[in-house]
Amino acid sequence: RLNGDGRRAFLGRVTASSATLLSSAIAPRVGPAFAADASASAPAPLAPFVGKAGFFMRIPSGWVKAMDRSGDGPSGAGGETLALVGNFRDIDTVSVRREPMSAHPDFAEATRRTNDDDDDTRPRRIAEILTSAERGAVEANQALGVVAGVEGGSSGVMDFRLGGASAFEAEGSGAGVDRYFAYDFYTEVCRAKIEEISGGEKQCVGPRGDVLDTIQRRNFVVAAESDGYLYLVKASALESRWDQVGAQLREIAGSFRVPQTQ
What pLDDT does residue 18 have? Predict the structure, then answer.
């Protein structure tokens, strides 16, 4: 779990015009592992990637494209994962998921610009709406898909913390795309049984009763509505790697455009 050393935010920015700051609810528990590491090797340059489903983003040229679907075939009522790319050796991943807007009436309501005074609070409200499943899973100790882009890749969510949220308008987007919303969050998951112990703490218990290590990840998501669908771009890495790759993962997700015109 995150310790209490330091109060620095773990997020930098999507672009120079859209900073995403960590909320005070998370910041007190963020450890020094999230500080910028000047000694880390330079990230690989990004190259254009146009998905078969008609979106654009920039990804490292050496990344594996494990999934790239056109989205033309039948999909479930809950939507489908269109693309999954990444450095799978270190489990740095970016997924693109598309879900029908009919499944997200709360998101549709929150994005309506009925009052410009709401612009400062709207991104946070949207982030809370789109992460309600994760928060609910923590409260109920339920299993939830937490591996980016993997259908049925479910684990028990032990901890979830929502960070900052922002909105930005971007060039290169197709007609009908108003704004892109970005937010970050932390998850701690257990791929076994979650048990509550004294003081309300939780532990991950294996089939033989042994306490197992949990998986702690940082996630950065960009959400956009286009042509009746909600697109969710999730960039994710292990907590231990976020200081090294987090800035580039934010840049990758922030480069997403739909429909692509570049």
Answer: 36
